[in-house]
Amino acid sequence: MTTLIIAQVILITALLVYKKYMGELPISISDSYYDLNKKKKGLGHMFTFFCWLMAFLIVPVWLGVSKESIEFLAFLSCGGMLFAGTAAEFKGDRLDNRVHFTGALIGAGGSVIWLLLSGFWYVIVAMLISGLFMIKKYGNRILWLEVAAIEAVIIGVFITINYL
After folding, report:
1. Is the CA virtual torsion 100, 8, 127, 19 positive or negative?
2. Are the beta carbons of 131 and 112 closer than 8 angstroms?
3. Which of 2, 21, 64, 92 is most buried when burial is the number of CB atoms within 10 A of its CB?
4. What is the pLDDT of residue 48?
5. DSSP H helices in 22-140
């Protein structure tokens, strides 16, 4: 289980390091689709792969540590990420736009509710403070709030695996 969590940390870190190395951080994780397509047509689908991989890596671990009454939130959150990744071209088609943003909101909302119901309010606060620090240092408000949300889930699941 811990290996899957470590793989997620490596994946999110690799995305941010790669984007910084390529010249600039994206406005949001979702904007990576467009940034990657600028480099080479078709490369933007790595964003879809990223979202799918993040969801598929965490869902078995997340379900394994969730209380039965709230494990549906893990499915909801991962499903939201899958939809956001699948509707990667959110700036164009109205349907993709609605699917992408609805998926992102469901994913983030389910994650925050799971963290709160699991007693991890302090992880949300810590990641929010971390995100605000990164916003002040680098800008890109949406990016750092997304990263903070993803990391909050990873930390909450990791704590549950190892300490509860």
Report:
1. negative
2. no
3. 64
4. 92
5. 32-39, 45-65, 71-86, 94-117, 121-138
Q: Which amino acid is at 60?
A: P
Nearest to 58 by CA among 121, 128, 114: 114
Contact yes or no for 47/69 (Cβ under 8 A): no
User: Do the beta carbons of residue 111 and residue 145 sit within 8 Å?
Assistant: no
**How high is the pLDDT of residue 164?**
65
Average the pLDDT over 122-143 and give the result: 93
Only one residue has tokens 């799918």, namely 52
User: In terms of pLDDT, which residue wins out, 1 or 36?
Assistant: 36
Q: Is the dihedral of CA 57, 9, 157, 142 positive or negative?
A: negative
> What is the spatial distance between Cα 59 and Cα 56, in angstroms, rounded to a whole number?
6
Number of domains in the chain: 1
